[in-house]
Amino acid sequence: xxxxxxxxxxxxxxxxxxxxxxxxxxxxxxxxxxxxxxxxxxxxxxxxxxxxxxxxxxxxxxxxxxxxxxxxxxxxxxxxxxxxxxxxxxxxxxxxxxxxxxxxxxxxxxxxxxxxxxxxxxxxxxxxxxxxxxxxxxxxxxxxxxxxxxxxxxxxxxxxxxxxxxxxxxxxxxxxxxxxxxxxxxxxxxxxxxxxxxxxxxxxxxxxxxxxxxxxxxxxxxxxxxxxxxxxxxxxxxxxxxxxxxxxxxxxxxxxxxxxxxxxxxxxxxxxxxxxxxxxxxxxxxxxxxxxxxxxxxxxxxxxxxxxxxxxxxxxxxxxxxxxxxxxxxxxxxxxxxxxxxxxxxxxxxxxxxxxxxxxxxxxxxxxxxxxxxxxxxxxxxxx
Length: 384
Ligand SMILES: Cc1cc2nc3c(=O)[nH]c(=O)nc-3n(C[C@H](O)[C@H](O)[C@H](O)COP(=O)(O)OP(=O)(O)OC[C@H]3O[C@@H](n4cnc5c(N)ncnc54)[C@H](O)[C@@H]3O)c2cc1C
Description:
This protein has helices at 7-34, 39-49, 70-83, 85-104, 107-118, 232-267, 279-307, 313-337, 349-359, 366-378, and strands at 124-127, 143-147, 150-161, 168-176, 183-190, 197-201, 211-221, 269-270, 273-274. The chain is α+β, with helices and mostly antiparallel strands.
């Protein structure tokens, strides 16, 4: 067991931090104040992230990857989360789209959709959650009806990240017709070719990343846009890896809040001395460092298991709930350490706290992650 980073990992982390500090962080505060970024702004920021491998993650080189493994990509995501969590989430959406196409798509689909999403020439989204089924995707209301001319999609989706600016979305729907069986399928819906409506929504955190409600009304999708053999089960498998990505981003947010609190505690004075000299503040800082490092180790272990081809179901869920809850706790402590300034947007800690709370929910809230882990640990399902 070796807990130290290799030279290659240290270089990667340094390069990511330099890029973040020079190109990404300076734009973050202002954009987060303004709210959802426009399509041009999303594309401009993503383009800056392409060369280091933020969008292609651990995709194989034959699919446009750059030879990164999961662990190294997690290191990159942590740095991105530390600098601008909304853009870190944006990057994983682009990657997860390409990952799904690379693993489940036809040769034609790979040719058409992989490069534009990896290069941020096309912005993408994932339309899974619905107004009455988020945690339980098995109860989908959206339908895909098979006709001789193609699929017809009907239904509503909510909380869909990037949907207001996305060119393509991957839609999960219940299949009607065809061989007469009811099952579920995943469809690439090209907004230009198969128009659907999107109503932009706002939320507590990750404000720079646009989000919206998607409505498919008799939306005609060509037959060849169905991902072959991709359905509910394959979508859930993809979400497993994505939980480790969110965990890595949450570790980055917790680290940012810890770093800022250490700096502030050394310089802010109360009762004629730096607040960092008070025992209670020192205890809080020590808790922040300990919990962030524990979350990092759980996340790295899960990513390392992915690299080794080990099944990560429970590990991904444990890392996700522990890292996101850690980020929520650590950022709350950071706000209290900053006192009244912790709630002003001239300091980024209030954004860290809002972003950390927001990260608790996507790809399954903490309760769901505990149930997934519990099912594997105990061999009994609480869902059925
Ligand atoms: C920032 C953000 C980005 C998102 N991006 C996307 C996206 O791009 N695409 C997409 O499709 N979706 C997206 N979502 C939606 C997200 O995946 C869902 O919100 C999430 O899965 C929870 O579903 P829900 O909101 O319907 O909550 P519900 O399923 O209604 O759950 C409500 C509460 O009940 C709990 N609960 C549910 N079932 C159980 C149970 N069996 N036992 C115990 N507790 C239970 C949950 O843990 C939760 O606390 C995003 C959400 C957020 C916040």
